[in-house]
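Whiteboard transcription, Tuesday session. T.W. wrote the C-alpha cells on the left side:
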C-alpha cells in the first residue's frame, strides 16, 4: 500500500503542508506544486442520467416531508472510521441517508428545509478534490489516492437534488432557527452543530419514522432483493463445488468462496458469513470460520449478497458435507423443514406478524415432545418456552437494506403488527443440540440445523424469493450431486 505524502492538503499561502512523521519526501517544491496544477484534461461528466431509484427516493422524501411539516430535517451519511492508524474501514452510508437519496459517499448530509407547504431538499457533499491547493494528490482522501468524487453538478443530475458543499454545512446549521431533527449516531460534527437545537425524544421519532417507512417495500426494492437472492443462490452453488477444498483447509475456504461471488456481483456480503461445520453449527452467529470441514458432518451456511444499492439477501442451508444426510441428521433436518413449511404457510396479508413464528415453534415443540426430549404436553412446552433450549432464536425478521431491517420501528407496527403486501421477511427455524448437552442422547449432540428463506408478502399470499435453492432433504442431496457434477 502506497504511503500518503501528507495528512492534509492546504494552500502554501495559508500554512505549510503537514508532512507525515516518517514520510520519505521532506516537502513540496514551488515548482512541483505549480506543475501539478495544470496539464489535466476536463473530466466533467455531462451526459449523466438519474439513478434508477430516483423516482422512489423522491417519493420517500415527500412522505418524510409530509410527516414533519415546518421542521428542518437532517440525515447524515456518516464518516470514515479508522481501522488501523491511517487506514479506514470500507465505508457504508447510513441506511436512512441511502434510502432517501441513493447516494453512498462519506460525509454526505441530506437536509430538508421547511418551505411553504413542504420542504426543499439539499444534498450536502464533498466536491471534487481541489487541484489548486494540491488536495487531489496530497490529501489521503484526494482523487489520486482513493478515486474521483462526483462534482456537485454531477451529483445534482444523478440524485435529482440540489447539491452544496458539505464543508459549509456545520456553520449553516449552527445559525439555524426553528425546530430541527437529526438522525443521530453517524456524524458527530453535524450533531455538535445542532447540540442546542435538538432533543433525543424528537430525534428518535425521526429515526422510528424512517425505520417504519421501510416496512413495506416498493417495486424497486423488491427487484433489488430478488437480485441479492439470485446472486446468493449462485454463491451457494459455488460453495458446494469446492467442499473438497474446504475439507483440505477450513471453513475459511467456504467464507472466501462466497465472498468472491458477493464482490463480483454485488457490493459486499450483507453481514458476516456464517460458515459453521460440525458442532459450530450450534453457535448461532459463528463467524470465526476457522474450524475444520469434515465428511460426515453438516455445514450450516448462513450468507447473503448485498447489492450495489445496499439490499441484502439472508439465506441459510444446512448441507451434508459428503452430500448425504445420515439417519439422525435427516431426522433433525426434516423436522426443521416441516417447521419452516408451517411458518411459510402462515405468511400472508392480514396475518399477524407473530403467526409464522408461532406456527414453526409449534412444530418444533411437537417434535421435541415426540422424541422424548421435552416433557409434554405441547401446550405446556410452548407456554413455558421449554423448546427454546434447542430452538434458541426467533423464527425470522424483516429484511431490506439492513439484514435485520426496520429494527427501530415501534413494537406495535412490527412484531405486534399485521403483515401487508410488500413486506419482506425471513422464515428461519432451527434446532441446535450443543455438543455438551447431556439432556439429549449422544447421537444428537453437535448437530445444528437451520433453514432460512426470504419471503415476500404478496396480495394473495407469499412468494419465496429464494425458492431456487432446494430445501427438502432428498432435493438437497440431488441438487448437491448435480452441482458437483
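and on the right, the sequence the group agreed on:
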Amino acid at each position: 500500500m502506497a504511503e500518503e505524502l501528507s495528512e492534509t492538503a492546504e494552500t502554501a499561502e495559508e500554512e505549510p503542508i503537514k508532512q507525515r512523521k516518517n514520510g520519505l519526501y521532506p516537502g513540496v517544491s514551488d515548482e512541483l506544486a505549480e506543475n501539478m496544477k495544470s496539464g489535466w484534461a476536463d473530466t466533467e461528466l455531462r451526459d449523466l442520467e438519474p439513478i434508477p431509484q430516483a423516482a422512489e427516493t423522491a417519493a420517500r422524501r415527500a412522505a418524510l416531508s409530509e410527516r414533519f411539516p415546518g421542521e428542518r430535517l437532517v440525515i447524515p451519511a456518516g464518516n470514515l472510521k479508522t481501522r488501523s492508524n491511517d487506514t479506514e474501514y470500507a465505508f457504508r452510508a447510513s441506511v436512512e441517508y441511502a434510502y432517501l437519496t441513493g447516494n453512498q459517499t462519506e460525509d454526505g448530509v441530506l437536509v430538508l428545509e421547511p418551505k411553504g407547504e413542504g420542504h426543499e431538499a439539499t444534498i450536502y457533499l464533498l466536491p471534487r478534490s481541489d487541484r489548486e491547493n494540491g488536495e487531489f494528490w496530497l490529501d489521503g482522501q484526494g482523487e489520486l489516492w482513493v478515486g474521483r468524487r462526483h462534482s456537485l453538478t454531477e451529483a445534482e443530475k444523478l440524485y435529482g437534488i440540489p447539491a452544496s458543499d458539505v464543508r459549509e454545512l456545520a456553520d449553516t446549521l449552527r445559525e439555524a432557527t426553528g425546530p430541527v431533527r437529526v438522525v443521530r449516531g453517524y456524524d458527530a460534527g453535524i450533531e455538535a452543530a445542532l447540540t442546542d437545537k435538538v432533543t433525543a425524544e424528537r430525534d428518535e421519532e425521526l429515526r422510528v419514522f424512517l425505520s417504519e417507512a421501510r416496512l413495506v417495500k416498493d417495486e424497486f426494492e423488491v427487484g433489488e432483493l430478488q437480485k441479492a437472492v439470485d446472486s446468493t443462490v449462485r454463491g451457494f452453488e459455488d460453495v458446494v463445488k469446492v467442499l473438497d477444498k474446504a475439507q483440505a483447509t477450513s471453513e475459511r475456504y467456504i467464507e472466501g468462496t462466497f465472498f468472491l461471488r458477493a464482490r463480483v456481483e454485488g457490493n459486499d456480503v450483507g453481514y458476516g458469513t456464517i460458515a459453521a461445520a460440525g458442532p459450530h453449527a450450534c453457535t448461532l452467529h459463528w463467524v470465526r470460520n476457522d474450524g475444520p470441514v469434515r465428511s460426515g458432518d453438516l455445514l450450516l451456511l448462513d450468507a447473503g449478497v448485498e447489492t450495489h444499492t445496499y439490499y441484502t439477501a439472508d439465506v441459510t442451508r444446512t448441507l451434508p458435507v459428503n452430500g448425504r444426510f445420515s439417519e439422525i441428521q435427516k431426522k433433525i433436518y426434516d423436522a426443521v423443514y416441516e417447521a419452516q413449511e408451517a411458518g411459510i404457510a402462515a405468511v400472508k396479508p392480514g396475518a399477524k406478524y407473530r403467526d409464522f413464528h408461532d406456527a414453526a415453534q409449534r412444530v418444533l415443540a411437537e417434535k421435541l415432545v415426540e422424541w422424548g426430549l421435552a416433557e409434554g404436553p405441547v401446550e405446556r412446552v410452548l407456554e413455558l418456552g421449554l423448546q427454546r433450549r434447542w430452538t434458541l432464536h426467533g423464527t425470522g425478521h424483516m429484511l431490506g437494506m439492513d439484514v435485520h431491517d426496520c429494527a427501530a420501528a415501534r413494537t406495535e407496527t412490527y412484531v405486534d403488527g399485521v403483515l401487508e403486501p410488500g413486506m419482506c421477511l425471513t422464515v428461519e427455524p432451527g434446532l441446535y443440540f450443543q455438543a455438551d448437552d447431556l439432556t439429549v442422547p449422544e447421537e444428537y449432540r453437535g448437530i445444528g440445523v437451520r433453514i432460512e428463506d426470504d419471503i415476500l408478502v404478496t396480495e394473495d399470499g407469499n412468494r419465496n424469493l429464494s425458492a431456487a435453492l432446494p430445501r427438502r432433504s432428498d432435493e438437497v442431496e440431488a441438487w448437491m450431486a448435480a452441482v458437483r457434477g
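Someone added at the bottom: The two ends are 41 Å apart (CA to CA).
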